[in-house]
């Protein structure tokens, strides 16, 4: 009787077996729940590293950014201020305020001081030369050659300093190739796609004839490709180059060039990356196409995943041209698009981390938590190199610092240059990121809590 009582029943054995197989999953789920709790982004102590002056400056600027009328007209307001104050007076006004909040500095000494402080906080730099062009702004080959030299200097600075660990930099193709040509190329490849090998051969200096382009356009395209080739050659095995996406009317041409660079330079690692804007309805299909192409052509794929920054202009252009709106209709659809693409990339990274990389470039806390949770579930290392996070310098520090504290690789997009050089960049970023700027109430609240804490301690 005693033995029969102790002998487990068949159903009991099955239950134990099921529990045994479920245990790892349950443990992973518990770890993920704990992880979500640690990434609450509610702790004002993230700002304890900031000086009193930095706290006050951030509070003041974020308060101004909460007024839509100021953000929408900041370009005109700054132009009036520059006229009224003069170049020197305007620089004296901007340097300790907006410039100091969002720009690393003007020269290598100033940049290094900012980057060394950032490095002590566990953050990494993603330097950005703030030069770009749009339709009607092209200024000739010399300007593009000068831009190339500035980007080569960015490669050198990113790689040669002690604060650089697995450094990244951003690159705008329209700083090296005219937007007008990019638009024409987009139209041409929509009718008849160019062979990727054709573009690679042109990068190598072969005299190539591109169907649909006239002689002067071919000459400019070849010059642009060779400029890009020089930057890529300088950066391989040193600095990861993240190519920015721009407007839909030129993005296919930018992707063509970027994929050609990937095919040539990403054989053994992801050194050239492309950007995918998830507010576009076709972003998921574009990402899946890139994954397929990288597999078929045998190159590594680096992905910068963003929501997007050109929404207003894209919608107005679509309306003007009588085209379908390329942007998702609501914020929820954009979130679903972003999170879905994020899941796709994390899945392939979990299978082949040496072939794929992603930077989760977002200020959205829910997406950050989702990425961290999926990394835990899929067994992806926090700091293994395949997945990292990115935010803009001067913004979303409560997210960046919390992630860094938890051991994740976190990059800050870091523009640099003079007040005059960075002003167009700052105006465009303010207008393109107005929804982010106007939604920083939580960051302001955390800054206020930290300020009140210090005032209490000083009494």
TrEMBL record:
MF terms (GO), sorted A to Z: FAD binding; proline dehydrogenase activity
Keyword Signal: yes
Positions of the Proline dehydrogenase domain: 132-438
Reactions accelerated catalytically: L-proline + a quinone = (S)-1-pyrroline-5-carboxylate + a quinol + H(+); trans-4-hydroxy-L-proline + a quinone = (3R,5S)-1-pyrroline-3-hydroxy-5-carboxylate + a quinol + H(+)
Cofactor entry: FAD
Domain of life: Eukaryota
Its EC number(s): 1.5.5.2
GO CC term (a single one): mitochondrion
Alphabetized SUPFAM superfamilies for the sequence: FAD-linked oxidoreductase
Gene3D superfamilies associated with the record: 3.20.20.220
Keywords from the named record: FAD, Flavoprotein, Oxidoreductase, Proline metabolism, Signal
GO process terms (BP): L-proline catabolic process to L-glutamate
One Pfam family hit: Pro_dh
Region forming the signal peptide: 1-29
UniProt function note: Converts proline to delta-1-pyrroline-5-carboxylate.
UniProt record similarity statement: Belongs to the proline oxidase family.
Protein name (Swiss-Prot/TrEMBL): Proline dehydrogenase
């Amino acid at each position: 009787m005693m033995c029969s009582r102790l002998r487990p029943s068949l159903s009991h054995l099955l239950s134990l077996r099921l529990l045994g197989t479920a245990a790892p999953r349950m443990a992973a789920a518990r770890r993920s729940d704990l992880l979500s709790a640690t990434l609450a982004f509610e702790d004002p102590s993230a700002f304890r590293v900031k000086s009193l002056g930095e706290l006050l400056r951030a509070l003041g600027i974020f308060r101004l950014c909460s007024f839509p009328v100021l953000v929408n007209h900041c370009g005109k307001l700054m132009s009036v201020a520059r006229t009224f104050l003069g170049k020197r007076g305007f620089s004296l006004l901007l340097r300790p305020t907006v410039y100091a909040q969002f720009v690393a500095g003007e020269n290598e000494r100033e940049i290094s001081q900012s980057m060394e402080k950032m490095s002590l906080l566990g953050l990494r730099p993603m330097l950005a030369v703030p030069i770009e062009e749009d339709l009607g702004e092209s200024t000739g080959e010399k300007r593009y050659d000068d831009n190339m030299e500035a980007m080569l200097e960015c490669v050198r600075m990113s790689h040669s300093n002690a604060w650089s660990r697995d450094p990244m930099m951003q690159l705008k193709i329209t700083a090296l190739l005219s937007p007008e040509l990019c638009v024409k190329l987009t139209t041409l490849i929509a009718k008849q796609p160019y062979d990727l090998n054709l573009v690679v051969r042109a990068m190598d200096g072969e005299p190539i004839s591109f169907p649909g382009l006239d002689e002067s356009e071919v000459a400019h395209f070849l010059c642009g490709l060779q400029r890009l080739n020089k930057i890529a050659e300088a950066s391989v095995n040193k600095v990861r180059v993240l190519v920015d996406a721009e407007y839909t009317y030129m993005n296919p041409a930018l992707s063509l060039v970027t994929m050609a660079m990937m095919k040539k330079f990403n054989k053994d690692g992801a050194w050239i990356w492309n950007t995918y804007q998830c507010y576009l309805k076709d972003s998921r299909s574009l990402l899946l196409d890139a994954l397929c192409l990288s597999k078929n052509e045998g190159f590594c794929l680096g992905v910068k995943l963003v929501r997007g920054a050109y929404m207003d202009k894209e919608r107005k252009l679509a309306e003007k041209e009588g085209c379908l709106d390329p942007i998702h209709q609501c914020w929820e659809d954009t979130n679903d698009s972003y999170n879905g693409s994020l899941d796709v990339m994390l899945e392939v990274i979990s299978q082949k981390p040496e072939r794929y990389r992603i930077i989760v470039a977002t200020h959205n806390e829910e997406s950050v938590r989702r990425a961290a949770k999926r990394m835990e579930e899929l067994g992806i290392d926090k700091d293994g190199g395949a997945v990292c996070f990115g935010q803009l310098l001067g913004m979303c520090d409560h997210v960046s610092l919390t992630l860094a504290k938890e051991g994740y690789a976190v990059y800050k997009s870091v523009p640099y240059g003079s007040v005059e050089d960075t002003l167009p960049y700052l105006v465009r970023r303010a207008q393109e990121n107005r929804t982010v700027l106007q939604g920083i109430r939580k960051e302001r609240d955390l800054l206020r809590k930290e300020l009140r804490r210090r005032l209490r301690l000083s009494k």
